[in-house]
Amino acid sequence: MRRFFVEDLDPAQARIEIKGDEARHMLQVLRMGKGHSLILAGPGGIRLKGRIDSVEGGIVTVAIEEQLTPVSPPPVEIVLCQSLLKAPSMDLVVQKASELGLSLLIPFASERTVVKLTGDKVERKLSHWKGIAKASLKQSDRNEPLEIETLAELSALVGRDWGENSLKLILWEGERGQGIKALIRGKPPNKRVVALVGPEGGFSKREVNQAMAGGFEPVSLGPRILRAETAALTLITLIQYEWGDLS
Ligand code: SAH
């Protein structure tokens, strides 16, 4: 059944109005109309099953029939700090990371970032990525849309207080000592994993040192050099498999 995310969904209401883009999408793209069943998803895992009761002036009114069991929050919060990549790679990361249950994505600019985003281009990109995340939410039945923050600097990410019980990692193909398996396999889960992944050209040694000075552990995904997007998605998958709900 089709799912739609409603930001201010109130489970106490018997009828819910859907307007704007979401309503247009329902009516014009999906050709939905009176009598169609659907699920409304809201923050905190709320799920309401209902049926379209009326369509008037582009406003879809849904009559709620049943409150479904809320979806549980992910057992481990994963934060991906991804150095900006070329558009198709970044889009891929947003879509797949959302499906895999990433909680927060923060794009950042690093020394070897090829793509430069400035001014209103940042805002445009951000809303483009949020659109991808929102579409993925419907498809994958996530609890809430993947949160995406605006473009950051590495220094801000390294200096940020990530809270207690956070495992902070920098994915570095030059790391020889510490592999991902030894780091997470059979270990009690951390509440949060924060991972820095580099751009196409990788991190500079200075950036790796900067992250390490801020308490980020360098970690390797093995002897092969992966594309940044492969590295990011592999890491999320491994964390979900070991500590999360990919089972
Ligand atoms: N510097 C390299 C490739 C960078 S790969 C070069 O140009 O040859 C892009 C990013 O993916 C890296 O910055 C790193 O964060 C991640 N990555 C790729 N392969 C990895 C591996 N084997 N272990 C850990 N991280 C890896």
Mind explaining what this structure looks like?
The chain is α/β, with parallel strands linked by helices. It folds into 2 domains: 3-68, Hypothetical PUA domain-like, domain 1 (Ribosomal Protein L25, Chain P), CATH 2.40.240.20; 77-243, SPOUT methyltransferase, trefoil knot domain (Alpha/beta knot). The chain contains 7 helices and 12 strands. It has helices at residues 20-29, 87-99, 120-140, 154-159, 180-184, 205-213, 228-243; strands at 3-5, 15-18, 37-41, 47-56, 59-68, 77-83, 104-109, 147-148, 152-153, 166-171, 192-197, 217-219. A hairpin with a 2-residue loop joins strand 4 (47-56) and strand 5 (59-68). Helix 2 runs parallel beside helix 7. The longest helix is centred in the middle third of the chain and has 21 residues, at 120-140. It binds S-adenosyl-L-homocysteine. S-adenosyl-L-homocysteine binds next to helix 7. S-adenosyl-L-homocysteine (SAH) is lined by residues 171-173, 197-198, 201-203, 220-222, 224-226, 228, 231.
Give a quick rundown of the structure.
This protein is an alpha/beta fold. It has seven helices and twelve strands. 32% of the residues lie in helices and 26% in strands.
